[in-house]
Amino acid sequence: MTQSVVVQIGQCGNQIGCCFWDLALREHAAVNQKGIYDEAISSFFRNAVLIDMEEGVVNEILQGPLRDVFDSKQLITDISGSGNNWAMGHKVFGSLYQEQILEKLRKSAEHCDCLQCFFIIHSMGGGTGSGLGTFLLKVLEDEFPEVYRFVTSIYPSSEDDVITSPYNSILAMKELNEHADCVLPIDNQSLFDIISKIDLVVNSGKLDTTVKPKSLVTSSAGALKKQHKKPFDAMNNIVANLLLNLTSSARFEGSLNMDLNEISMNLVPFPQLHYLVSSLTPLYTLADVNIPPRRLDQMFSDAFSKDHQLMRADPKHSLYLACALMVRGNVQISDLRRNIERLKPSLRFVSWNQEGWKTSLCSVPPVGHSHSLLALANNTCVKPTFVELRERFMRLYKKKAHLHHYLQVEGMEESCFTEAVSSLSALIQEYNQLDATKSMPVADIPRLSIAM
Amino acid sequence: MSIVTVQLGQCGNQIGFEVFDTLFSDSHSSQGLCSKRENEAYQASCKERFFSEEENGVPIARAVLVDMEPKVINQTLSKAAQSGRWKYGQHAYFCQKQGSGNNWAYGYSVHGPRHEESIMNLIQKEVEKCDSLSGFFIIMSMAGGTGSGIGAFVTQNLQDHYAHSLKMNQIIWPYGTGEVIVQNYNSILTLSHLYRSSDALLVHENDAVHKICAKLMNIKQISFSDINQVLAHQLGSVFQPVYSAEGSFHYRRNPLGDLMENLVPHPEFKMLGVRNIPQMSENSLAYSTFTWAGLLKHLRQMLISNAKMEEGIDWQVRPPISGLPPLGKMPLNKELHFNTSIANLAILRGKDVQSADLGKKLRAYLHQYTKFGIEEEDFLDSFTLLEQVVASYYNL
């Protein structure tokens, strides 16, 4: 079995990471009755690495219920924090902690028989997650070139409270473009919308909408909580579920397995276009035990609706380059085929990849559900987010607002900013070109003719 | 004479298990349709072909299981052992920790050479256990990375090492609407390489078998194990012992040799398809009656009109030439003929080649293959070979 190492950086990264470990342990405990820390989980998620430049969050973790899962050898902390400054995180803390980070990573890798993947969790808008996180990517690429780098990035929403988040995000994006194998962009606003929707259903008091406990995609391990302790708990749980479902086929058995290297192989046709929009369904399971096939089909339809995407995006009205459906639970190949046939006409695929579907079936469902679906789409619908980000950046940059905080860090120059923006513009241009082919008819390329 | 089976990848292993299970159940079934002596002779012949004997009487399948990640092999081995009736050899498998990632290039250029020795050793061990080797039966899919890439590599190796033995590759053609996005690339590369090194390619299409399950067998929620069981059923009828010309109780000794002799007269034409009838669920079987003449008539028309199932046969089509060598055994009937399946396969291949071509023109996904040493020229070679094959079939 292959192993993965989870690296959580910054406040956001660490909080999500915590939820993730919580849920992962719960899942494996449910599957394996013997012990809570069984072979499958210990072999798959080998050694997390927690990094933060201020101690608050990590300390909380070490005092909470997960304190036995981690030990101090896996932590790297500092006291002062990065002050929401990408340059601080990337240049200053990067060089300061490079050796330490490398050492911890090497140790983690040594414990693994066959290290397949690094999962990096961070946010784009702050300083540590954004700056140090992306510095880490370059380090990983140099040190472990064969190992995949999957990055879960939380993009800032438009009503973000960090003023310099556009700077941080764009500077970070350049690194993601160049050094990540696969990026799963997520934004807070979408997560919040999903939660509001769930709350509406749970609290609406309708007679037939009693939700099964533990089945909420937002619920933490343990009893169903009405009031979440920390404000971002519910949202973090959604992201944690995403990561769990992504790796489910590699951890558990199924009739059509999908390993992590297959994700990159199938969903990334060109190395730069590696941004995958994700959606998770169902968000909750009603307590009603009779689940007719109609509910199953509903799960598939929901996965493509813009309300279920973990990012502001509308994949149905944009162009698909590739799509992956990872199904868990008691779903068979005929259900999958039927739904693909049903949904295909309403989706637009790029002309050279009309049948661009990758599917996988895992027999173990997530805790509290009888089946679930994770859809990953390489779709041009990420473009609007990038375009908006660039606009916010330019608004600040034109006035040179807050720039001095960055430029006074050694190693930062204005050229860093201009390069970052042009890298993003090039990416947007690629998506534009693909979109332009949307309405063109499928070109009939002549077959290779040979002399007989 | 015995056949050594090599099961590759998730698909190959899952099907392989069903095949052995079917072969075993078939030869030990309790239907009292023929005399005891006949039954025993049949059982002995079948057993010798596919199983070898162990001390405590549990037959061991003559098979080598290969996969690049352990989950499926573990499942397969334990399922077989649990049944208590037959099992796989304890050490007759080879697996690694990390899969091939649906990448033909990774399977062929990296995993293949790296593990060549170990895999060939395992095969060698199985071969030594046989009194006389009829040939190899290699089960693989075309869409993934291990089955297709390592399958192509292993077949080539078998060609080099066991030049006198026959090889039949059982390949699974993926669903049209995709299970794997790069399946077109993987399939083209596999087909072209297999064409050079294999003796016969027995093709099964997931779409067709799925339809059989849906329409004829009335299965509501079709799972892969249902599909595999239908497949195993068809394969069983291909390989089960057949009477020889000398009369009853003497079975033909060389199954693969016979098949090749009759069906692959020219090395250019080696793609085979299977039609079998009746295809229905166990329950309906009790309520139907058959006659040989009726079955044969249906089968003939299925072949001529290119239908894969018993339903919807076009009775208008007439054949230009006929000359089918029927091989039958109660209560199943199957024909193995290539003439009429060509048109269909040629079309299928054509479509595949075309979509792979489109993708290639825009260099989509190519960086994943060039990473492991498969360059554009290799793709070009594959396309050329396949176009030639398609053209020769059309000319027929």
UniProtKB/TrEMBL annotation, chain A:
Pfam families cross-referenced by the UniProt entry: Tubulin (PF00091), Tubulin_C (PF03953)
InterPro entries: Epsilon_tubulin, Tub_FtsZ_C, Tubulin, Tubulin/FtsZ_2-layer-sand-dom, Tubulin/FtsZ_GTPase_sf, Tubulin_C, Tubulin_CS, Tubulin_FtsZ_GTPase
Main localization of the protein described in the UniProt heading: cytoplasm
Keywords for the protein's UniProt record, in alphabetical order: Cytoplasm, Cytoskeleton, GTP-binding, Microtubule, Nucleotide-binding
Signal peptide: none
Organism domain of life: Eukaryota
GO molecular function list: GTP binding
A cellular-component GO term for this protein: microtubule
Subcellular locations according to the entry: Cytoplasm, Cytoskeleton, Microtubule organizing center, Centrosome
Family: Belongs to the tubulin family.
Subunit annotation: Found in a complex with TEDC1, TEDC2, TUBE1 and TUBD1.
Name of the protein this chain belongs to: Tubulin epsilon chain
Organism: Prolemur simus (Greater bamboo lemur)
Lineage: Eukaryota, Metazoa, Chordata, Craniata, Vertebrata
Gene for this chain: TUBE1
From TrEMBL, chain B:
Pfam families: Tubulin (PF00091)
GO molecular function, one term: GTP binding
UniProt subcellular location: Cell projection, Cilium; Cytoplasm, Cytoskeleton, Microtubule organizing center, Centrosome, Centriole; Nucleus
Entry's Gene Ontology BP terms: cell projection organization; microtubule-based process
Keyword vocabulary terms for this entry: Cell projection, Cilium biogenesis/degradation, Cytoplasm, Cytoskeleton, GTP-binding, Microtubule, Nucleotide-binding, Nucleus
Cytoplasm among keywords: yes
Keyword Signal: no
Positions of the Tubulin/FtsZ GTPase domain: 47-247
InterPro entries: Delta_tubulin (IPR002967), Tub_FtsZ_C (IPR008280), Tubulin (IPR000217), Tubulin/FtsZ_GTPase_sf (IPR036525), Tubulin_CS (IPR017975), Tubulin_FtsZ_GTPase (IPR003008)
GO cellular component terms attached to this protein's record: centriole; cilium; microtubule; nucleus
Function: Acts as a positive regulator of hedgehog signaling and regulates ciliary function.
Family assignment from sequence similarity: Belongs to the tubulin family.
Name of the protein in question: Tubulin delta chain
Protein's organism: Prolemur simus
Gene expressing this chain: TUBD1
